[in-house]
Amino acid sequence: MNDILPEQTSVWQWVEGVAREILEGSGYGEIRLPLVERTDLFCRAIGEVTDIVEKEMYTFDDRNGDSLSLRPEGTAGCVRAAIERGLLHHQQPRLWYAGPMFRHERPQKGRYRQFHQIGVETFGMEGPDVDAEQILLTRRLWRRLGIQPVLHLNSLGTPACRQTYRAALVAYFSEHADQLDEDSQRRLQSNPLRILDSKNPALQSLIEAAPKLPDYIDAASREHFDGVCQLLDDAGVDYVLNPRLVRGLDYYSRTVFEWITDQLGAQDAVCSGGRYDGLVEQLGGKPTPATGFALGLERVVALVEAQAPERVPAMAPDVYLVHQGASAQRAAFTLAEQLRDGASALKVVVHCGGGSFKSQLKRADRSGATVALIIGETEAAAGTVQVKPLRGQGEQQELPAQDISREVLALLGRAPAA
Ligand code: ATP
Ligand code: MG
């Protein structure tokens, strides 16, 4: 579990802000969900024989003896809320959420025990349009952020065709059981589709030759998938048809997708999603088609840092105010308030904690500020301020305090407020 420090939060805030703008801009409304749910909800939603439920959840009994778990993902809670809060009656909600998720995994680069997702879920829309819409939303986000993950796409068909496919897989892998590793041996009985997800290099050629899901899907699902591909083609989206993409969770049906990168080592999935038409009913709601995705913020942030660090807006202050002596301090505080009143977006830091001019100016420089404003006793008495550009444009000059706002905005290349 990580601390995210101020020097990192600038990227986080930017990514979150752009995502929020794009989602709200397409009619998605934010839903804020609890971090804790009944354990049973996750068992039913995600599936008893998934890695998450089998070994990754933080589960505890509360004071009433109820078994609760920290949420390992957002979809289950979102579906619960949609059912309980009546969001599904004659409505087609488009929802999004952001926040921490918890999984007791082996920590490594790009894999943490508390990580953060932005997730999206929609309910009540069964056509391929909304599947395509969500993929387009994510593409828009990557474009704005300046990153280039690759889209992998597949269709899982209906649960019925997955059963047939599952049987074919079990037959195939049983024939080659001696070549399977321990994990895959276990999955052969419990969740054979997960074998396809295995990252063990020794298994890759065996997996390559396994029966392929697209050969097993039904006509209606095929048509749905063609509809998704058509809309993506129209929008000029590049994608890889990946018959091995099956996703780790039980609840998916039909369209599944993943945005993948080769920049982050083994942790290559940046964003994953798809359709889960059976889940609402499975959790006690009336049958309701649904689609969603979740992106991993740590991985998106890492990708931005690798591919487009120059796009991240600077968080440095515009102005750093340096002062010495009692009357200078009062003048500095008055001036800072004036500057903040004059231009609300201006970032103004007033030095606190004393120290020589020299040490204060060092701090001003280290803060990354564009301009230092300096007030000593002489300036305070004369009602002036020394204006010192810190980023190499122009000489230091002394100006009347009342002209400072205009001068600072000019130095920052901004127009004064009307
Ligand atoms: P992976 O294959 O990497 O384990 P997953 O299939 O378990 O991913 P999902 O449950 O689909 O992942 O979650 C959606 C996204 O959340 C992933 O694409 C990934 O970016 C991110 N994610 C999942 N688990 C972690 C984790 N432990 N640490 C950081 N990010 C994660
Ligand atoms: Mg995982």
Write up what this structure looks like:
It contains 15 helices and 16 strands. The protein is 39% helix and 20% strand. The chain has 2 domains: 6-157 and 217-311, BirA Bifunctional Protein, domain 2, CATH 3.30.930.10; 319-408, Rossmann fold (3-Layer(aba) Sandwich). It has 418 residues and is of the alpha+beta class. The strands form 3 sheets. The chain has an 8-stranded mixed β-sheet. It has helices spanning 6-25, 39-46, 51-56, 75-84, 128-145, 159-175, 182-190, 204-208, 219-234, 279-282, 297-307, 326-342, 357-366, 377-382, 404-411; strands at 29-30, 36-38, 59-61, 67-70, 94-102, 114-123, 150-155, 240-241, 253-260, 269-275, 290-296, 319-323, 348-350, 371-375, 384-389, 397-400.
Can you tell me the residue ranges where pLDDT is under 50 for at least 5 consecutive residues? Answer: none
How many domains would you count in the coordinates?
A: 2
Averaged pLDDT:
94
CATH class annotation of the largest domain: Alpha Beta
Shape: elongated
Specify the structural class: alpha+beta
The main pleated sheet reads as: 8 strands, mixed
Distance between the termini: 47 Å
**Helicity, in percent?**
25-40%
Which hetero ligands occur in this complex? adenosine-5'-triphosphate, magnesium ion
CATH topology category name of the largest domain: BirA Bifunctional Protein, domain 2
What is the CATH homology-level superfamily of the largest domain? Bira Bifunctional Protein, Domain 2
Radius of gyration (CA) equals: 28 Å
CATH architecture of the largest domain: 2-Layer Sandwich
Name the strands of the widest sheet in spatial order.
Answer: 1-5-6-11-10-9-7-8
Number of helices: 15
